[in-house]
Amino acid sequence: MNVANAVTTSDAKDVADVAQAAEKALRRARLLVGPELRKAVQRLDDPVRTVAGFHFGWWGPTGEPVMADTGGDMCSTLVLTCAEALGADPRSALAPAAAIDLVHNSWLLHDDVMECALTRRGRQATWAVFGRSQAILAGDALLVLGMGSLTGHTHIAEISAAMLDLISWQGSDLAFDERFDLQPCGSEVEERLTASSGKVGALYGGACALGAVSAGADPATTAALRQFGRRIGLAAQFVDDLRAMRESGARSLRKRSLVVAAALSSCTRAGRRLGELFGRPERLSPEEKAEAARLVEKAGGPRWAEQAVRWQREQALRCLAEADLAPAPAAELAALADLVTREGYRRGEM
């Protein structure tokens, strides 16, 4: 099939059809994986169990039930859909799908602590409610549950590699945010691209590879789907950075995102002035933060990121075309690629 045609959005009907295909895949993951996640978390003792369940949105700070999705996010959706696209029953990939959701949420808990993020999935971040130590412990517990559930499986190598990539590039990401030696027309974009690809790309790429391995795919097909996941993971990061810039403006500059890195590397007068502001160890004043936000826009950071989103999406679809996939689930994968490139997509909520 022509995978690119599966996500053509030239009119309202096309957009609705693509959204419906993506939602179908996400809904199936929630229905299949949700009970497995709850079963895993129930193995924990309190207070860690309460902290983990709060993070998933199942209950409040004291354990009172709340209305929320039962679980299942983009990672598990990619596992199940890739397996089905290669002719396997999605249920055969349920164990690795649940495992990578647990691992993903372990990272989200830790990432919120490291980034001092105050919200997650439309509510207070777990560390902001229970404290940093409890959130870190809950993240550790989810990581152990996820990795432990695959003991003896061939999938353990894929998920271990994805986690090592993620940890390595998270370190690079944090180090980049603390740098003051930024050079005009430097390599900030390349460095930030590498870090972001290693983070979100590692998770999404690992998820796609897990689905392929579950279906018994050959190495070439597994590699193509892994690269597809890496591409859409990077696109998701671009979209996330653009949304933060547009919603938070100067407040988003605490994080030197891909949008900011593009502006710094633009070799424009605005980019050079931005480098001067970020090159000082002291905190920016409110006036300087407002100036920096204007400079990012003037230096073309958002425009560059928008173009990069489109390019990553095109490359992701080419990766799909390299694999021999069943038409319906292939269309769902293409629809998921389209979903993560939309401005309203919120990566941390899926």
What are the SSEs and their pairings?
Layout: H1 12-41, H2 48-56, H3 74-85, H4 94-115, E1 119-120, E2 123-124, H5 126-130, H6 132-148, H7 156-177, H8 188-214, H9 219-248, H10 258-264, H11 269-278, H12 286-298, H13 301-321, H14 327-340
Antiparallel strand pairs: 1-2
Helix pairs in contact: 1-3, 1-4, 1-14, 2-6, 3-4, 3-8, 3-14, 4-6, 4-8, 7-8, 8-9, 8-10, 9-13, 10-12, 10-13, 11-12, 13-14
Describe this structure in words.
The chain is mostly helical. Helices cover 68% and strands 1% of the residues. It contains 14 helices and 2 strands, in the order ααααββαααααααααα. It has helices at 12-41, 48-56, 74-85, 94-115, 126-130, 132-148, 156-177, 188-214, 219-248, 258-264, 269-278, 286-298, 301-321, 327-340, and strands at residues 119-120, 123-124. A two-stranded antiparallel sheet has the order 1-2. The longest helix has 30 residues, at 12-41. The two termini are 28 Å apart.
List keywords for this structure.
14 helices, Isoprenoid_synthase_dom_sf, mainly alpha, two-stranded antiparallel ribbon, 68% helix, 350 residues, disordered N terminus, Polyprenyl synthetase family protein
Give the distance, in angstroms, between the N- and C-terminal Cα atoms.
Answer: 28 Å
- What percentage of the residues does DSSP assign to strands (E)? under 5%
The biggest sheet amounts to:
2 strands, antiparallel
Number of helical segments?
Answer: 14
Structural class: mainly alpha
Quick summary:
This protein is mainly alpha-helical and 350 residues long. It is 68% helix and 1% strand. Helix 8 runs antiparallel to helix 10 and helix 10 packs across helix 12 (286-298).
